[in-house]
Amino acid sequence: MSYETGVRWKWIPFVVLAFVLLSWLVFEALDLIDFEGVVTWVRGIDPVWAAVAIFGLLVVDVLLPVPSTPLIVLAGTALGLPLGLALAIIGSLGSSAAGYALGRFARPWLVRRVVTIDELTEMRRWGRQFGPWFFGVARGIPMMAETVSVSAGVSRVPFRTFLLYTLVGTVPICAAYVLAGSRAETVEEVVMISAAGFLVTVGLFYLLRRLVKAAP
Prior knowledge:
- The chain has helices spanning about 10-30, 35-45, 45-60, 70-80, 80-105, 110, 115-130, 135-140, 140-155, 160-185, 185-215.
- By secondary structure, it is an all-alpha fold.
- Its main location: membrane.
């Protein structure tokens, strides 16, 4: 199987985050939006439609640059803790399973749209450093989750092993975001929770990446 460098989406979440934060500051300064009213509206959406929309966006995250962190926070805001947590976990695992299936069964031209040979090589280094726990660690890092899922499929890692360790990493991350989202009362709080979670996980990614590169 040959790989070529495809379209790189990894910087798009940063652009989306910057746009959201800038828009929030502008709207807040000009008092254009009732932020408390927006949260009330979100909580008033039919739970079925909210669940369908959030689940669908979480699953297609493997192919499209959908920011999963705000979606998981919104799952808590719109659906509350028990249902929001269940939806976030199932949606995240669905995204991981879809990525695994893509890496294992899709044609090379489609796989290389998601992961390059350089990324595959780096993923193998991470795997040697952390073993199967790598799948759990990666689930909480937005820039890595999709790449790792596809790479696991390409490498033909046993699906049960992949899904088990992914679940171990998914549950605490989703629980933290959904709990925070369920307690958010304004859009400011939703945005700040999403931004803080995103920045923390990105910082963790770069820290772990330095450790992996320094390893023999």
